[in-house]
TrEMBL record:
It comes from Anthoscopus minutus. The chain crosses the membrane at residues 131-147, 167-189, 201-222. The keyword Transmembrane applies. This is TLCD2 protein. It comes from the Eukaryota. PANTHER family: CT120 PROTEIN, TLC DOMAIN-CONTAINING PROTEIN 2. Residues 39-228 form the TLC domain. It is a multi-pass membrane protein. GO terms for cellular component: plasma membrane. PROSITE patterns: TLC (PS50922). SMART domains: TLC. The gene is Tlcd2.
Length: 228
């Protein structure tokens, strides 16, 4: 039994309550009534990312040793941050299962399954915490990705705010998603001799799934916001 599981459970419960509270404080606009989950998920994730995921760069600053050893180094704060993220993705996974049709959410469910498995390994084994923190840098872009979703539901597409967010969204997408995933894939390849075969297989499959998914989403964003 890992104490990290308690952090995961506490994180799951906290984000569950956060989503319920935000839905009462910020009711969905009329345009979002048909898809209340997207509105709730957009508000909740923006708050969550600001509070937890974006602490990832701070952990590298506070614990420089993480940059030198992405496998064995696991400071308590860094390990807890990964565990909190697992709780968040679990809560969002359950929320989608309960409130979304499968054909509308299968891509996100698939994405969350991969993240939960990979981060869960780091939490349970107390290894690859640094690698998981690098992966969390990807979620910095999600702030602007979900702000775009909220602006769409509020019918604010033809506004300066939406256009500015679209530019920042694509810029952070390239830096924090595509470039970060490319670096992680390169790290796995260069360190394949130091990573157990089972873990290496999980990591390789995860990168093989995430990379094309993110490239496809980037193309969709580019086409929707700039080429339509």
């Amino acid at each position: 039994f890992s104490p990290g599981l308690l952090v995961v459970a506490g994180s799951f419960a906290a984000f569950r309550l956060l989503n319920r509270g935000l839905e009462r404080l910020v009711p969905p606009p009329p345009s979002a009534q048909r898809n209340r989950w997207k509105h709730r998920e957009g508000n909740g994730e923006t708050e969550a990312l600001c509070d937890t995921h974006n602490l990832s760069p701070c952990r590298f600053y506070l614990h420089p040793e993480l940059s030198n050893d992405l496998v064995g180094t696991h400071p308590p704060g860094a390990h807890s941050l990964v565990a909190v993220s697992v709780g968040y993705f679990l809560e969002d996974f359950v929320d989608m299962l309960c409130n979304q049709k499968l054909h509308q959410s299968w891509e996100l469910l698939f994405h969350h399954s991969v993240v939960i498995i990979c981060f869960g390994i780091a939490v349970l084994l107390h290894q690859y915490v640094g690698f998981a923190l690098v992966a969390l840098l990807v979620e910095i872009n999600s702030i602007f990705l979900h702000l775009r979703q909220i602006l769409l539901m509020a019918n604010l597409v033809h506004t300066t705010c939406y256009r500015l967010n679209s530019l920042i969204n694509l810029g952070t997408y390239v830096v924090f998603r595509i470039a970060t995933l490319a670096w992680m894939t390169r790290w796995l390849f260069l360190n394949r001799q130091n990573v157990p075969p089972a873990t290496y297989a999980v990591g390789t499959v995860g990168m093989a799934i995430m990379t094309p998914m993110n490239i496809i989403l980037f193309y969709r964003l580019l086409r929707s916001d700039f080429f339509k």
